[in-house]
Design a protein that fits this description.
The complex is a heterodimer of chains A (about 450) and B (about 325). With about 450 residues, chain A is of the alpha/beta class. Chain A folds into 2 domains: about 5-165 and about 325-365, Periplasmic binding protein-like II (D-Maltodextrin-Binding Protein, domain 2, 3-Layer(aba) Sandwich), CATH 3.40.190.10; about 165-320 and about 400-450, D-Maltodextrin-Binding Protein, domain 2 (3-Layer(aba) Sandwich). Chain A has helices spanning about 5-35, 45-55, 65-75, 90-105, 115-125, 145-150, 175-180, 185-200, 215-220, 240-255, 270-275, 290-295, 335-345, 350-355, 365, 370-375, 385-395, 405-410, 415, 425-445; strands at about 55-60, 80-85, 110-115, 150-155, 155, 160, 165-170, 205-210, 230, 235, 260, 280-285, 305, 325-330, 450. In chain A, the strands form 5 sheets. Chain A has a 5-stranded mixed β-sheet, sandwiched between helices. Chain A has a 3-stranded antiparallel β-sheet with strand order 12-7-13. A 3-stranded mixed β-sheet of chain A has the order 9-10-15, with helices on one face. In chain A, helix 8 packs parallel to helix 10 (about 240-255). Helices cover about 70% and strands about 0% of the residues of chain B. Chain B has helices at about 1-5, 40-65, 70-75, 85-130, 140-150, 155-165, 175-180, 185-195, 200-210, 215-240, 245-250, 260-270, 280-300, 300-310. Chain B is globular. Classes of the chains: A alpha/beta (about 450), B mainly alpha (about 325). Chains A and B meet through helix 1, helix 4, helix 11 and helix 12 of A and helix 3, helix 6, helix 11 and helix 12 of B.
Chain lengths: ~450, ~325
């Protein structure tokens, strides 16, 4: 309840901001680049080193807590460089601020944390720098496929993957044992567990869901759906493909059967329910353990991790949920230092800092390292949970695309698909409305849209 | 200097109501008046409900502020449970993240003193001037002020941001203070209040006695305007203290956050991958944030009430 006001407000600001930025994106590309005094000419590694030796101050907008340690290590390694780490808001709040700064042409950071789903919007608007001039394309082999595909947009590399969120099923073993439920390997079994659990204890739910764009698109992604197709400025949205149908088929039964806890994720109620067993599972990204440890200390030892249930028995498909990248802003006047920091945090020594802080890496070297894979999680009763996550990262279905204005699209999710959770509208109808509204907006913004 | 010693009319303070409303009402059994109104069960019930509705969230806040983070999630919100942790919570709130809460408190005070104080000063000066002096274009000014009252500040935030950004003012305290200086509603209130509270005859008398306009304003008009000033001050203080949207757009440096943004940033920590939920600090911080406002209202209640009633009764 407390969350509604700021969200509505930021949604409003976002509307203004996206409308402003996209109308301006035709002109901003050239002058932002020249104003910053930095072209696209290649920058060698030695040039980066001399920039670092010369020093300067850069501003980083990020909300990720482990970056604090990365910044102090970076400053220790390069004492002439000062990094201002600013938490300018989480997720869409930060994007609003970023769009505003891009539009205004000043007041923005040098480096910004941008989630994968949102990066396309900034890349298309030419507000973030193509990192090709730094040879970033050579890093492609260092990252797992899902995150790399998200930063490699139309032949340019617009950010470096900072972490990733291959999905897994977190489940409360105590609840499962108490009601003799089997850990589901398919979504059909999941539905079955949901019914049995809720029948046995009317206060307990298999999971919570009040309508979450990121979650919905991730599950459709896992089911092999490709609702978004983007080719330059040609955009199509189609939520009637087989993958989307697989999702609505199962999820509609959970919604209609009132088998989903009506609790918003990240609320205090949610943390409470994760601790007291009234939410039995979470299908979410591999970054979740750190949150469980700090937010649900009472659940320690109760929870376990299993691979994501499958849409068809015997498959092993997965998807990404969440995860962020570090982008260098086109308007930055210290692009070299900015890239050096992004590289340090996402590909260099900073990666280890972040893993120690509980972040889930996107770098294949770490995903395959025995030390990482064999880490036992006391919270999960000593389970080597990273093995599940790392396997999931390998099984992410290829070819998924987000809209180049996904931030806006996600902001209207609750007005369309969200209705399916509170009224007689079906999920399929809700998705159709979301599709229409998204296409409509695309047309208004000058995209060539189709179904 | 007869004018300065003339006692202010009683109506500026607490008006003596009995003189005005003694209209004999032909009621058979009981005599009801404004001072002894008829008791209505329905109205009492309704207003009790409203009181309850208003106080419940406050009670929840006070009770919740006494709980530790685990107790907060593990017990019902409207009653105490577990250890009484209010003092711990307050200490933690004040010291969390290098005492940043105190910094936010000082920022808020800065914005309130300069923003709300300045807005009140401007509203008083302009309201008095518009009420007591005739000049060309007064009607146009009136139209602009009334029009400005109708435009929500939220709608102006983004254009203001773009303008300030060109001027290099974003991410500085000025970005919050300057827009807060403008209070069309306060101006309108002072205008109406001045027209009623300062009799033209009194000003005339002062002028005849040779008092200059500035002196007349400070020595004669200002004391009469006190209730109105306090009312406008309270309005603008509340608006600035609780201002969320404007600083949200303008300020990105947490060192310049007001309390509203700071608490929201703490709240968002719970929604961040790898972030630490600190709901107990958010709640205790919110409680600490409203204490000064509640105190201001209680202390200035008398002025506030008489200010609201000003102009409602024609004498």
């Amino acid at each position: 309840m407390r969350a509604t006001t700021p969200r509505t407000l930021s949604g409003l600001a976002l509307l203004c901001a996206t409308a402003l930025s996209l109308t301006a994106c035709g002109s901003s590309g050239t002058d932002a680049g020249s104003a910053a005094g930095s072209g696209d000419a290649a920058v060698s590694a030695s040039a980066l080193q001399s920039a670092l030796a010369k020093g300067g101050t850069i501003t980083v907008w990020a909300w990720e807590p482990t970056l604090k340690q990365v910044v102090s290590d970076f400053e220790a390694t390069y004492p002439k460089v000062h990094v201002d780490l600013v938490n300018a808001g989480t997720g869409d709040k930060q994007y609003t601020a970023l769009q505003n700064a891009v539009q205004a042409g000043s007041g923005g950071p040098d480096v910004a944390q941008i989630e994968y789903y949102a990066l396309g919007q900034f890349a298309l608007g030419k507000s973030v720098q193509d990192l090709g001039k730094y040879g970033a394309a050579k890093l492609s082999g260092s990252y797992s496929t899902g995150p790399w595909n998200s930063v490699d947009i139309g032949g340019g590399v617009y950010a470096l993957p900072m972490d990733s969120g291959p999905m897994a099923l977190f489940y409360n073993k105590k609840v499962f044992d108490k009601y003799h439920l089997t850990v589901p390997t398919t979504w059909a079994q999941y539905l079955d567990d949901a019914r049995r659990l809720h029948a046995a204890d009317p206060n307990a739910y298999i999971t919570n869901d009040t309508g979450d764009a990121g979650f919905t698109t991730s599950l459709i992604w896992q089911a092999g759906g490709h609702p978004y197709k983007v080719d330059g400025t040609k955009v199509s949205v189609d939520f009637t493909d087989a993958g989307s149908n697989a999702f609505t088929g199962t999820w509609q039964q959970l919604v209609s059967g009132k088998l989903l806890a009506p609790i918003n994720s990240w609320s205090d109620q949610w943390y409470k329910a994760l601790g007291d067993g009234s939410i039995a599972t979470l299908a979410t990204g591999a970054w979740m353990p750190a949150n469980l440890v700090s937010g649900v200390p009472g659940g320690s030892g109760d929870w376990r991790v299993a691979p994501l249930p499958q849409w068809q028995a015997g498959q092993n498909a997965s998807a990404e949920n969440g995860g962020s990248s570090l982008a260098v802003m086109k308007a930055s006047t210290h692009q070299d230092l900015a890239y050096a920091f992004a590289q340090f945090a996402a590909a260099g020594a900073g990666v280890q800092d972040r893993i120690k802080g509980g972040a889930f890496p996107a770098t294949t070297a770490d995903l395959n390292s025995p030390a990482f894979l064999n880490t036992a999680f006391p919270y999960f009763g000593g389970q080597q949970a990273n093995q599940v996550f790392a396997q999931s990262a390998k099984n992410v279905v290829k070819g998924w695309q987000y809209l180049p204005y996904q931030v806006y699209a996600n902001s209207i999710f609750n007005d369309t698909v969200g209705k399916a959770y509170v009224s007689s509208t079906t999920l399929a109808e809700g998705l159709k409305n979301w599709q229409d509204a998204s296409l409509n907006y695309g047309t208004q913004q000058g995209f060539t849209t189709g179904k | 200097m007869t004018a300065t010693t003339t006692p202010a009319p009683a109506r500026a303070g607490t008006p003596d109501r009995r003189d005005r409303v003694r209209t004999p009402l032909p009621r058979p059994r009981r005599r009801h008046s404004v001072d002894r109104p008829r008791r209505s069960v329905t109205l009492t019930l309704l207003s009790s409900l409203v009181v309850l509705y208003t106080l419940l969230p406050l009670a929840w806040l006070v009770v919740s502020a006494t709980k530790t983070q685990p107790d907060l999630l593990g017990s019902p919100g409207l009653w105490f449970s577990g250890r009484f942790a209010l003092w711990d919570n307050i200490t933690q709130t004040l010291s969390y993240d290098h005492h940043v809460f105190l910094r936010w408190l000082l920022n808020t005070l800065l914005y309130v003193v300069l923003g709300a104080g300045g807005a009140t000063l401007l509203a008083v000066l302009a309201g008095y001037g518009l009420a007591k002096f005739d000049f060309r274009g007064k009607k146009a000014v009136f139209a602009v002020v009334i029009g400005a009252v109708a435009v929500p500040a939220t709608a102006l935030a983004v254009p203001t941001f773009l303008m300030f950004s060109k001027m290099g003012l974003t991410n500085t305290p000025w970005a919050v203070i300057i827009p807060s200086l403008v209070s069309p509603f306060g101006l309108y209130l002072m205008w109406v209040f001045s027209a009623e509270a300062v009799p033209a005859e009194l000003l005339e008398a002062a002028r005849v006695d040779g008092s200059g306009e500035v002196r007349t304003f400070f020595r004669i008009a200002l004391p009469l305007l006190a209730p109105g000033i306090v009312t406008v001050l309270l309005f603008t203080v509340v608006a600035t203290w609780n201002n969320y949207f404007l600083p949200l757009i303008m300020i990105k440096d947490p060192n310049w956050y007001p309390l509203t943004l700071g608490l929201n940033a703490w709240n968002d920590q719970a929604a961040t991958a790898g972030g630490q939920p600190v709901f107990n600090l958010v709640i205790t911080g919110s409680l600490l944030t409203i204490v000064p406002l509640v105190a201001a209202f209680l202390l200035l209640q008398r002025y506030w009430q008489s200010g609201l009633a000003a102009g409602s009764v024609k004498e």
